[in-house]
Amino acid sequence: MAAVDMTVPVDAVAEATLIEQEEAAIERIKRAREILGDEVVILGHHYQRDEVVQFADFAGDSYQLSQEGAKVKAKYIVFAGVHFMAESADILGRDDQVVILPNMKAGCSMADMANLEQVLTAWAELEDVLMADPEQQIMPITYINSAANLKAFVGEHGGTVCTSSNAEGALKWAFDRREKVFFFPDQHLGRNTGKAMGIPVEQMVLWDPFQPYGGLTDEQILNARIILWKGHCSVHQQFRPEHVDLWRKHHPDINIIVHPECMMEVVDMADYVGSTAYIGKMIAAAEPGSKWAIGTEIHMVNRLKNQYPDKMVQLLSPFACLCSTMYRISPLDLANVLENLVEGRVINQVSVPDDVKQKAKLALDRMLSIPK
Ligand code: SF4
User: Fold this and answer.
1) Which of 63, 103, 105, 108 to mutate to test ligand 1, by most ligand atoms within 8 A of the CB atom?
2) What is the pLDDT of residue 9?
3) Which of the 8 DSSP states describes residue 353?
4) What span, in angstroms and rounded, lies between the C-alpha atoms of 277 and 209?
5) Which strand (E) or helix (H) includes residue 356?
C-alpha cells in the first residue's frame, strides 16, 4: 500500500482534485455541446464564473436574459443563473421548451426575503388601512428577483415586474396609473430609483413583513408614495460609504460606479449608477488609463478587469463580494445536465405551474413593453 503523505493538508488534496475535475468538465461540456448542436441554448448571467459563462450563447443581465429567453428557438434552455431567472425563462418560453437549471440549489437570498403568504398579508393590511380597493390606489411592482408566484400576484393585480435596467420606467408607468407603489423585495432598488425621480425619502416607507401592518402607522401608509419591502441583496449590501471614501482618498480621479441594489448612502456618493449591462458598457467605453471602482458582484468586476487591462478596474469593497448562490453553478453541473440531455434525459427542469405561469406572464409581458 502506498504511504500517505501526511505533510499535504487534506483540504489542498480536495482542492487539487476539484480543479482537475473542473478541467475535465470543460472538455465534457464541449463534447456534449457539439452533439446537441442547435437543440440547446445556454444563457448566462454576468455574475457567473468565467468557466461557466464562457459557454453562454448569450450573456447579460436579468432584463437582457428575459428578452433573449423569450426569443430562443431551441428546445432546451440551460440557464446559468439562479432559480428565479430560470422560472422567468419558463414563463416567457414556448410550451414545448424545457428550461434547465444546472444546479437546483442556485437560488437568490433576496428573492427568499418575500414569500406569497407575506405579500398577501401585507396586501390585506394595506386594504384595511386604505379602506378601499387597494387596486384603485396602489400598484404592486416586483423586482425580477422574486418567485414566480409573486410575479403572478403582481400580474393578477395589474402590476409589473421590473429589473435594475428598467426600474425607473416601471415606476413612471405605475404612477401614471395609481397613486402609490408597493415595491418588493429590494428596498434599495426601490428607494434609489424613487429618489432619482425626485420622490422625497420620507415618502418612501419601509414595510417590515415580520411586524403587524409592516411596523407602520396608518398615517405613514396614507402619506407614502412608495411602500418598500424590507429586503436586500446580501452581496450589494456589503458596499459601504467608507469604501468610496477610501478609494477617493488614494485616487482622487477615480470613478465610482455602483449597482442600484447598493444602499442609498453608497449610491448617493457614486459618480454613476446602473445595472450590470450599464456598468459593462461604461467600462467598455471608458478612456484608456481611467480608474474605476465598481460596486457589484466580484466575478463581473474581475472579468471587466481582465477584459480592459488598459484601465484600472477594481472592486469597490476590500472584501470579496461574491454571490454564493450564483457560484453554486460549476462546470461540473453544466457538464452533468448537458450529458444527460445527450442521453435523452432531462434533469433539473424548472417548470412553473400553468395557472401561476399565465398570471406571471402578464406581469413579465408588461415589463417587456415598458420603455426603459
Ligand atoms: S447578487 Fe444578490 S440579488 Fe443577485 S442573485 Fe446574488 S443574492 Fe440575489
Assistant:
1) 108
2) 64
3) -
4) 31
5) helix 354-369
Q: Which residue has the cell 471602482?
A: 293
Compute the C-alpha angle 264/270/321, nearest 5°: 75
SS (H, E, C) 230-241: CCCCCCHHHCCH
What CATH number belongs to 10-107+326-352?
3.40.50.10800
Q: Note the pLDDT of residue 5.
A: 56
Residue 138 Cα to ligand 1 middle (Å): 27
The percent of residues above 90 in pLDDT, for the chain, comes to 86
Burial environment of residue 104 by CB neighbours within 10 A (0 to 12, 13 to 18, 19 or more): middle
Identify the DSSP state of 212.
Answer: G
CATH topology of domain 236-315: Rossmann fold (3.40.50)
Nearest atom in ligand 1 to the alpha carbon of residue 261 is 3
Mutation test residue for ligand 1: of 87, 324, 325, the one with most atoms within 8 Å of CB: 325
Q: Quote the DSSP letter at residue 100.
A: E
Q: Which helix (H) or strand (E) holds 120?
A: helix 116-130
